Amino acid sequence: MDLGGILTAMVTPFDEQGRVAEDEAVGLMRHLVDHGSDGLVLAGTTGESPTLDDEEKLRLWTLAVEELGGRATVIAGSGSNDTAHSVRLTERASAVGVDAVLVVTPYYNKPNRRGLLAHFRAVAGATDLPVIVYNIPSRSVIDLPNDLLRELAEIPNVQAVKQARSDDLDPIEGMDLLAGNDEMLAEVLEMGGTGGILVASHLVGEEMRRMIDEPDRRGEIADSIEQVVRALNTVAPAPATVKAALDLLGHHMGSPRLPLVPASDDEVGSIRAALETHGLLSRV
């Protein structure tokens, strides 16, 4: 399958007791797909994967397949810094019928090159699904250089890289290139990338979709959403900012789980100002 388009790294809604709010999750899935998203990543970083247990992740993937199967791409965030755990999660994700898996570079352990290759080979070997490698050195400490990505691309079902490194963005033969940060989308598309796994698409997904469909206006559209993108990615950690923004728009996402905390009043004010400037609040 082709892996591309606007793929939203969906937040996970919680109720007042901190449990996954399934009805709100399904409602958000529908909303995102109706407003520019070609697919969703469930239980990724923005979905608070570090504080979701395995059964919660499995339930989110199952809900997405039941709700969106055939209508949008469903991608499971099944990676961790534990290879055996990543293999088990990938096997379970495959069994419920997701379309692809997102596997992050092992964080904290700091494996060397041979360890990284062994990790991704083991996880890819646990499924026939397409595997998206997630390179995010700002969180995982280690980087996947392009020569290592080329070696990973030789694994038959390693099909794409979510690249959250801002420099040295060479396309890799045999591997789709996906923007891993919102502000990179235009640049990645210009160099032949197939789309991105994005956060601001919770709010400006239709505009981001137009960046693919209207390449001549790509820069203009990117400029028009820049303030929203900046607010969501700099005011506070992204799950908290996105949840605050969605709450302002009438979607009830609940608080993030500790150690993340809700956006403060000042932070919500900055988010509100960005939404107002873009005209989003006037649509509510």
TrEMBL record:
User: Which biological process, per GO, is one annotated for this protein?
Assistant: lysine biosynthetic process via diaminopimelate
Which top-rank group of organisms is this from?
Bacteria
Residues the record annotates as the site (Part of a proton relay during catalysis) are: 45, 108
Q: Name one cellular component (GO) term.
A: cytosol
What GO molecular-function term can you cite, just one?
A: 4-hydroxy-tetrahydrodipicolinate synthase activity
Keyword list, A-Z: Amino-acid biosynthesis, Cytoplasm, Diaminopimelate biosynthesis, Lyase, Lysine biosynthesis, Schiff base
Write out the catalytic residues in the record: 134 (proton donor/acceptor), 162 (schiff-base intermediate with substrate)
For this protein, the Enzyme Commission number is 4.3.3.7
Q: Which SUPFAM superfamilies match?
A: Aldolase
Swiss-Prot/TrEMBL catalytic activity: L-aspartate 4-semialdehyde + pyruvate = (2S,4S)-4-hydroxy-2,3,4,5-tetrahydrodipicolinate + H2O + H(+)
Task: Please give the InterPro entries that the UniProt record associates with this protein.
Answer: Aldolase_TIM, DapA, DapA-like, Schiff_base-form_aldolases_AS, Schiff_base-form_aldolases_CS
- Which Pfam families does the record associate with it? DHDPS
Q: What's the top EC group for this one? A: lyase
Specify where it is mainly localized.
cytoplasm
Q: Where does pyruvate bind?
A: 46, 197
| Annotated localization | Cytoplasm
Q: Which Gene3D superfamilies match?
A: Aldolase class I
Question: What pathway is this protein a component of?
Answer: Amino-acid biosynthesis; L-lysine biosynthesis via DAP pathway; (S)-tetrahydrodipicolinate from L-aspartate: step 3/4
* UniProt xrefs under HAMAP family: DapA
Family from the record = Belongs to the DapA family.
Return the PANTHER family for the record: 4-HYDROXY-2-OXOGLUTARATE ALDOLASE, MITOCHONDRIAL (PTHR12128:SF66), DIHYDRODIPICOLINATE SYNTHASE (PTHR12128)
Q: What does this protein do?
A: Catalyzes the condensation of (S)-aspartate-beta-semialdehyde [(S)-ASA] and pyruvate to 4-hydroxy-tetrahydrodipicolinate (HTPA).
Q: How does it assemble?
A: Homotetramer; dimer of dimers.
The name on file for this protein is: 4-hydroxy-tetrahydrodipicolinate synthase
Q: What is the lineage of its organism?
A: Bacteria, Bacillati, Actinomycetota, Thermoleophilia, Solirubrobacterales
